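Thread amino acids onto this structure.
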């Protein structure tokens, strides 16, 4: 006998409830009308056929695969136990437990990986820093010492230890770790090579230089007593100028940068060689006219522009001015006359014509105008350098009487005056300069009035600006006072010692 429709419906509901209980779900069915008869073909023999549903407290009779009851509200509740071959409940539960365990282990390993990634980033930065330091070392290994190499090697060893620890604790992919290990190994080899190179070159050279310096000091100490002394101030006990110092820039002339032409120096008197006044005589901006000059008692006054005496004259010409024994000597404007001006009274004490001298820019120096007549002072007194038509522009040197401006003696050189930039006298020897570049000048020629000999030199002197307008020598200080495009420069001269 086949079951009726209501019975099939109840059976399907019970099966659904059994499946949901397996997955932890309780299903509530709606109440059905109590059947008048209930087929028993699929129930066990203990169930009475066509019986009514029991009360809410009563239980259904046990069937082969489910149990059930009805609550106070008439809702039917039942559970079904399915065989394992029908649905693998136990295996599903085991799978769920295993999945939870694996998830916990994965979270733990993931946290380790995150920590290792942070450490790798830190040491990657250290590797980059070491790379920069090694690059600097390759470019300039002289600045590194043996201690620097030892510090680098210690840092590399620390990173090697960390990499080994990471390899032991890191069970995942080790591609990054292996790459870092290779880079650290290469860094170690590179540091060792650089250290070897440095020892073979820089450090060895340093030691050799230190040894040479020590030997040089010993040699200097042993020879200091026998070294020739420089000549005494104002003395000519030497063999002539052999070298020159770098320029000492005193300052810009007091009128400013636009006054590029002029002269400056210090008064020299054999009676009071170290107490002369400092003087500055810039020309007008035309580079020709001398109208104003200043006197300073000390170099400090000159530097600070204090305690200056400013005087005016009518008129000097060119930058060939000198001061000797408290008198200023200038070429008088628009003539070949020489003028002697008393610095105490600022009056012209004497004028005298320089015989046959060319003037008014006929044979001036190279790059300097209106300096046809150039006065000079040295240990022997007052001189004048000029050119004549008869000398065809070559330099003429005359010794003057400083009181009367009379010419005492004259020498004719073979050097063309417009080809030199300036001249000065030291112990009766004329020295001429020429331009090498915008920053270099050269003392290239000399004429010795003591012997009548002349020749070539090569003493390079640096300069502040491009053009040298005047050079004056001070015998006591043994310095050159150079007017260089408005700047006041000082040079120290070095002399060749006399043969022993």
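Threaded sequence (500 positions):
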């Amino acid at each position: 006998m086949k079951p009726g429709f209501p019975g099939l419906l109840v059976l399907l509901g019970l099966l659904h409830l059994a499946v949901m209980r397996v997955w932890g779900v309780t299903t509530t069915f709606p109440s059905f009308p109590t059947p008048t008869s209930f087929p028993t073909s699929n129930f066990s023999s203990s169930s009475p056929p066509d019986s009514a549903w029991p009360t809410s407290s009563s239980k259904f009779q046990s069937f082969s695969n489910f149990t059930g009851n009805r609550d106070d509200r008439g809702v039917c509740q039942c559970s079904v136990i399915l065989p394992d071959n029908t649905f693998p409940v136990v295996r599903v539960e085991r799978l769920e437990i295993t999945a939870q365990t694996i998830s916990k282990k994965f979270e733990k390993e993931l946290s380790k990986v995150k920590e290792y990634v942070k450490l790798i980033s830190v040491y990657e930065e250290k590797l980059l820093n070491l790379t920069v330091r090694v690059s600097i070392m390759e470019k300039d290994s002289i600045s590194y010492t043996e201690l620097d190499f030892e510090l680098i090697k210690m840092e590399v060893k620390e990173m090697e230890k960390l990499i080994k620890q990471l390899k032991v604790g890191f069970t995942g992919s080790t591609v990054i770790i292996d790459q870092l290990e290779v880079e650290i190994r290469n860094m170690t080899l590179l540091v060792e090579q650089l250290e070897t190179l440095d020892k073979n070159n820089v450090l060895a050279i340093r030691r050799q230089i230190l040894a040479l310096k020590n030997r040089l000091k010993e040699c200097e100490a042993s020879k200091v007593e026998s070294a020739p002394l420089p000549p005494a101030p104002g003395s000519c006990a030497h063999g002539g100028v052999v070298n020159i110092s770098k320029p000492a820039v005193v300052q810009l002339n007091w009128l400013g940068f636009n006054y590029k032409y002029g002269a400056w120096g210090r008064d020299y008197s054999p009676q009071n060689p170290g107490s002369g006044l400092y003087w500055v005589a810039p020309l007008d901006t035309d580079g020709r006219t001398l109208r104003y000059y200043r006197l300073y008692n000390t170099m400090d006054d000159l530097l600070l522009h204090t305690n200056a005496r400013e005087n005016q004259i009518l008129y000097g010409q060119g930058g060939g001015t000198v001061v000797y024994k408290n008198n200023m000597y200038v070429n008088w404007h628009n003539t070949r006359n020489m003028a002697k001006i008393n610095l105490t009274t600022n009056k012209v004490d004497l004028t005298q014509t320089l015989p046959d001298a060319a003037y008014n820019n006929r044979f001036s120096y190279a790059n300097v105008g209106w300096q046809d007549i150039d006065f000079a002072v040295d240990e022997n007194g007052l001189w004048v350098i000029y050119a004549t038509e008869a000398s065809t522009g070559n330099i003429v040197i005359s010794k003057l009487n400083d009181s009367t401006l009379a010419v005492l003696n004259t020498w004719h050189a073979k050097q063309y005056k417009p080809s030199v930039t300036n001249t000065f006298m030291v112990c009766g020897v004329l020295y001429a300069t020429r331009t090498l570049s915008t920053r270099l000048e050269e003392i290239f020629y000399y004429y010795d009035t003591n012997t009548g000999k002349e020749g070539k030199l090569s003493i390079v002197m640096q300069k502040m600006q491009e053009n040298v307008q005047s050079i004056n020598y001070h015998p006591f200080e043994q310095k050159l006072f150079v007017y260089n495009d408005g700047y006041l420069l000082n040079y120290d001269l070095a002399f060749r010692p006399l043969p022993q």
